[in-house]
């Protein structure tokens, strides 16, 4: 009986540490993807930004129409870059994972041009649903944001 209890306890510890490592890994992978996103956006590479999304991704911009598909998402971000938006920063505030899906709540800042061309910094918040592909890569699947303080 004592052996069974010891085995059960060891199994619970092993399982909980494996689950913890998986959640930690998802956050680390998503934070690494955020770095790739900001680097690509800030260097003007909308194609690289688009590759961070799933094939059937959707972005839901504030006061704008939903944009579907990786190609549409890439074109959306190309328009933002050509429109003079720059110096994007992203910060994950929360990341929760379940199986091959995760959600992230975060904050951003971005420099946007006014009609006279002067840049002003805006801040906002976002939620992204991430989807883990068969290759083990986390990609943005649904992306929505708006302006205003994150907390």
The average pLDDT score comes to 88
Number of strands: 6
Secondary-structure element string: HHEEHEEEE
CATH class annotation: Alpha Beta
The poorly predicted ranges are 3-23
Strand order of the largest sheet: 2-1-6-5-4-3
Please count the helical segments: 3
Q: Could you explain the architecture of this structure?
A:
Residues 30-140 form the DUF4440 domain. InterPro entries: DUF4440 (IPR027843), NTF2-like_dom_sf (IPR032710), Steroid_delta5-4_isomerase (IPR011944). Keywords: Signal. Residues 1-23 form the signal peptide. With 151 residues, this protein is α+β, with helices and mostly antiparallel strands. It has one domain (26-147): Nuclear Transport Factor 2, Chain: A (Roll), CATH 3.10.450. The protein has 3 helices and 6 strands. The protein has helices at 2-42, 46-50, 70-82, and strands at residues 53-60, 67-68, 86-98, 101-113, 119-132, 138-147. Strands 2-1-6-5-4-3 form a 6-stranded mixed beta sheet, with helices on one face. A hairpin with a 6-residue loop joins strand 1 (53-60) and strand 2 (67-68). The radius of gyration is 19 Å and the shape is globular. The termini are far apart. The model is unreliable at 3-23 (pLDDT under 50).
């Amino acid at each position: 009986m004592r052996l069974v209890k010891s085995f059960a306890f060891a199994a619970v510890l092993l399982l909980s540490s494996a689950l913890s490592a998986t959640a930690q890994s998802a956050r680390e992978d998503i934070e690494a993807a955020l770095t790739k996103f900001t680097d690509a956006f800030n260097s003007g590479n909308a194609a690289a930004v688009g590759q961070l999304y799933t094939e059937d991704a959707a972005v839901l911009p504030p006061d704008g129409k939903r944009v579907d598909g990786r190609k549409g998402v890439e074109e959306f971000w190309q328009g933002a870059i050509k429109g003079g938006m720059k110096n994007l920063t992203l910060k994950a505030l929360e990341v929760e994972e379940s199986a091959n899906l995760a959600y992230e709540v975060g904050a951003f800042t971005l420099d946007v041009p006014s009609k006279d061309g002067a840049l002003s910094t805006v801040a906002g918040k976002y939620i992204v649903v991430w989807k883990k592909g068969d290759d083990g890569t986390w990609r943005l699947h649904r992306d929505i944001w708006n302006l205003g303080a994150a907390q």
